[in-house]
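Chapter review: from sequence to fold.
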Amino acid sequence: MRLGVNIDHVATIREARGGLEPDPVTAAHIAELAGAETIVCHLREDRRHINDRDVRLLRETIKTRLDLEMAATEEIISIALDIIPDFVTLVPERRKELTTESGLDIIGNRKTLQTTINRFHKKEIAVSLFLDPVEEYIRLAHEIGADYIEIHTGEYANARTFDEADEHLEKIRNAAELAGSLGLGVNAGHGLNYNNIKPIIEIPEIEEASIGHAIVSRAVFTGFERAVRDMVDLLQRYTVRNENVVPED
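The token string follows.
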């Protein structure tokens, strides 16, 4: 499983003082050196953390893949079409939310999303849709031409009991299996950390985990490079262990 490091929270710390530090672009370079295979950032309409300059510098300097999270609004679409990230992840966006709270309303926004996907495909930019693990949503994502889905893991991450977590984990498993059977790439993200990531790693269809807050939180105590390496090691260790399991007859 690949690790996509979301650097939004580094930018949030920078914006808390309105200065230049810590620099999210520097954080992206450190994450790459530590083993991250994708850099993730969310260019919000209100520019509350990542800004236009960050995105342009990331596109010019990172050596792995750039995943630009964004709402399907004309301003941000135009920026993405100019910058040409490796892929975009379309997410819902509300001005007062602290972080993305749920998956896209793919049913209510089907026409807009399909048009947006077509625009990106003309520039050979792959498109991922951030979705709750619901069968209808995944089938519709395939119908309108998405290349990937990113399964919203927030309800699983926020579960208060083991039974509740297992219930949400089963939905994630089923969603990943369905998406894979339809030929969609599968990523996962939201609320994942060094503990709850382990069952996610065991789902073979999930190719990449997008993690930000947990890594930045650990970095306060260990340093950013060590925090990224710890997560990379965790993903690799559990992935190898699962690949070596011999299925029963």
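Two observations follow directly from the output. The first strand starts at residue 2 and ends at 6. Residues 2-242 form a domain with the TIM Barrel fold (CATH 3.20.20.70).
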